[in-house]
Amino acid sequence: MAINQNNISEREWFKSCPIALMALNEKGYICGVNPALEAISGLSSAHFLKHNQESLPSSIHRPLLENEELVHLHGPGLECWLQRETRKLKGADSEEITLLYFQDVTEKQQLQQQNSQLTEQVKELSITDTLTGLTNRRALTQMLDTQITRSRRYQNPLSLAITEILPQNSEVISDKLILTVSNYLRDRLRWADVLGRWEGNRFMLMLPETSKEAACTLIENISKGVTDLASTGGEQPPAFQLRFGLVEWSKGFDTTRFTQQAEHALDAADASMAS
C-alpha cells in the first residue's frame, strides 16, 4: 500500500476498511486496492496495480477510474453501482495520493429503477383502457386538445367520429364483443388516426388531416367490412352493427363542443335508424 509504507496503522486501516478503496499516485497509476474493492470487482489487486485507466486490462473495470460520481460496472457475472468520492492525501516522500472511495449502492439503484418502471406502468394505466388496451377517455381528451390547437393554428382539417356498438336481438354487449370491435377498428384505421374507448360500448375515432368527406369514405369502408366479422366459416352474420356520429372541426369548436357535436351526430343517426 502506497499511502505510507512506513506507517503500519495506515496500511492496516486501508486493508481492513469496509468501504472499497483504490489509491492512485501522482501520475494516475493504481498503487493500492483494498480487499473490499477486490470483493466487489471480482478481481485481485494484481489485476489493478501499476495500471492507469488506459492500460487497465479489464475494460469492464475502467469506469472505476472515470471522473464520475456514480460508477456502473457490468459484464459477465458482474452488475453493480458504486458511489464514488475522491480525497487527496500525502503519501510516502510527500507524494500526493488520490484516494477513491466506492460505496456499493447497487440495491438503492435497483430500487430506483424499479420505482421508475412502476411509475411508468401507473402512468400507462392512467391513459389506457384496462379492457381493450386502447387510449382511455382522459387521454383522448388531452390528445384532442392538442389536435384542435394544431387545426386552429394551421387550419388543418380534423374530423372526429364516435361509434357505438349496436347488438342484434337485444343481446348483452359482452367484454368479448367490445374486444372484438376494438381490434376490428384498430386494424382498419390509418397510422395517423387515433382510436380510443370513449365509454361503455362507444369508441372515439380521431382523424387528423382528414376532411369530413374523406372521413365519410373511411367510415363507409369500415361499416361495409363489419360483415367480415362473421363466425368461422362465414355462415353467420355478426351479431352487431356499428353506428357513427361524425363531425369536422370548425372555428370556435373547443374540445367540449367538438365532442358534443359528435355525440349529437351519433344521436341523430340513432333516431334515423329507429325511424
Task: Provide an overview of this structure.
- There is one protein chain.
- By secondary structure, the chain is an alpha+beta fold.
- The protein folds into two domains: 8-105, PAS domain (Beta-Lactamase), CATH 3.30.450; 128-274, Reverse transcriptase/Diguanylate cyclase domain (Alpha-Beta Plaits, 2-Layer Sandwich).
- It is built from seven helices and nine strands.
- The chain has helices at residues 8-16, 35-41, 106-126, 137-154, 175-188, 212-224, 255-274; strands spanning 20-24, 30-33, 70-75, 78-90, 96-104, 158-167, 194-199, 202-208, 240-248.
- Strands 2-1-5-4-3 form a five-stranded antiparallel sheet. Strands 7-8-6-9 form a four-stranded antiparallel sheet, sandwiched between helices.
What is the structure about, briefly put?
This protein is α+β, with helices and mostly antiparallel strands and 275 residues long. The chain has helices at 8-16, 35-41, 106-126, 137-154, 175-188, 212-224, 255-274; strands at 20-24, 30-33, 70-75, 78-90, 96-104, 158-167, 194-199, 202-208, 240-248. Helix content is 37%, strand content 25%.
